[in-house]
Amino acid sequence: MSAEATSPGAPIRRRGRPRIDLRRLGRAALFGPVSRDRLPDAIAHVAEVHRVHHPDADLSVLQRAYLLAETSHRGQMRKSGEPFITHPLAVTLILAELGAETTTLTASLLHDTVEDTEVTLDQVREEFGEEVCYLVDGVTKLEKVDYGAAAEPETFRKMLVATGDDVRVMSIKLADRLHNMRTLGVMRPEKQARIAKVTRDVLIPLAERLGVQALKTELEDLVFAILHPEEYARTDALITEAADGPDPLGATAGNVASVLREAGISAEVLVRPRHFVSVHRVRIKRGELRGSDFGRVLVLVGEDADCYAVLGELHTCFTPVISEFKDFIAAPKFNLYQSLHTAVVGPDGEVAEILIRTHRMHKVAEAGVVALGNPYASEGAPPTAEPADGERADPTRPGWLSRLLQWQQSAPDPDTFWTTLRADLAQDREITVFRTDGGTLGLPAGASCVDAAYAQHGDAAHACIGARVNGRLATLSTVLKDGDTVQPLLGEDAASGPSPDWLDHTRTPAARIAITGWLDAHPQTAETGRTGVPADPGPQPVPPPAPRTARARTATAVTERPDAAVRLAGCCTPVPPDEVTGIPVRGGAAVTVHRLECPAVARMEAVGRTPVAVSWGDEQACRVTLVAESFGRPRLLADLTEAIAGADAAVISATVEPPTEQRVRHTYTLRLPDAAGLPALMRAMREVPGVYDVSRAQHPAGAL
Questions:
Q1: Catalytic: 306?
Q2: Percentage above 70 pLDDT, the chain
Q3: Which pLDDT tens digit goes with each residue over 590-646?
Q4: How far is residue 174's CA from residue 188's CA, in Å, rounded to a whole number?
Q5: 115 annotated active-site
Q6: Is 622 helix (H, G, I), strand (E, B) or coil?
Q7: Which of 21, 116, 327, 501 is catalytic?
């Protein structure tokens, strides 16, 4: 089934290879040319479609599954008035058309037997094996009698957990929902709307993430028709009008085919009509639609290298729209999708979008994980074989599913799970960031360093005090980009916890649930900020200045002008053994000593001041101003003061600026008994947990 074909019944003209209409095909398969009372040809037609994709498939198991399903559902009717067996047959036919393997089709035939008949899971296991039993159990709903209002969210939780072990569970559920949506017209409008909203919020995003575009696009159109009937009717009218007008895409496809034929590239060129929702989105984006906006040109080739050869020919022979080029072959989407996207301007000025992919890429683009068959079967091993460690190695289990399975364990409340699931699935793009140990983290687009910390460290991230992004210090609110390298920095205080404002920067449910859980357990933090420290503390208390009972000795500097008064510059606070120079002031009556790298020296020289030579005398006591940059945490000021005292330094003055984005800047003017102890003092201050930099002041200190 085409991922971009219009909804069933749409009057748009088909171009290129015709698409199989599953609704029409389903009715023919179910009822055939005989009366409605007979169904014997139904399973034969499913088997015929299945053999197209799997010529060597064993069909006997399908026949046995059909007999069990037909017998157990006999006498049951759908609300549409059709025999109930038509539903599992239609679901199986949808999956067969997508290329699902025999085990999936067997389970789809039986998917309602345990839920709606007297058949038990033990019977299914005994008759068809453990895998079929697992798939049937995965899609079986929980009883409202047992779960009440929580039955629907808990059923989806059960289904997603089962999908984590076998993605074929969700394939069956998506096909099941598609057939139910096709026949939703017999229900009350309010129930139609409720089912359509759940489909829109949960199942369509899941179909997108699993790459099953063929199901996703038709589900989108059916939901669109129910929830937005006026917009649907308007879009339908636009498609009908375009079908009766000129065919610019057909002309472009012909030109593309001619160019590739002349270049000796074997390719199949088709025109793919857009489905209803796609046309609606293009109309919103561009306003007035052009004739070429109702579809795209699809080029199918044999090998990956041929895709780039086609791209080169098209960009050489047509005028490309460079902003429309995207390479999803070199960088596949997180849902397995691969293709080259480009757009070219035709001779008539029409801009045509072109998709270039191999036949295998096209199959995966249409059917996603369904096209991969049994992901657990390996060459020379039976489908049920498991690795030695007892865990299945699932090549189709994407990062988003692993994250979902992780956070759902922390959301025991059904309402929390249901709300969080919808919010999580609404994030439709994913990025990959690298850890410093070489591993990777898959995160939703817009994720911050907070999300990365919880993804890597779990609840230990409560003690996170900052992060490095691409080797540079960054705040926890920093939004990560695809390909960034991130290193969360954890404090040593295991009792510390997150700040309420972290919730403003989270995109992953795992981080949000963990932070919310910690704040609920520590309610005082929600009012005062992180671990009891005021969120906006204002001026901080500072240690009292050292008593000035007698003037202490300071480091002495000797200049070549013995009569000039010498003072140490406050902008760079030079101390022995810094390399220094002197700048004459007040007509040479005084000399100010600066460090050589001080910016003030260059400014003075630029205005004609001539430096004088300066050397250090024997006296080694000194005064220095240090700036400490840190992340906010409890007892930080006390720990810094203790480190300063441990170096026998006296605090002359200190200022602490109010925190900004959890960063705190401390400025200390200190008196050291020996300048040689300055490097050790700075090391001791840097080793204080939460401090990430200590430097000499490069601007005038505060009041001394």
A1: no
A2: 81
A3: 788 888 888 888 888 887 778 888 877 665 667 788 888 887 777 778 788 888 888
A4: 22
A5: yes
A6: strand
A7: 116
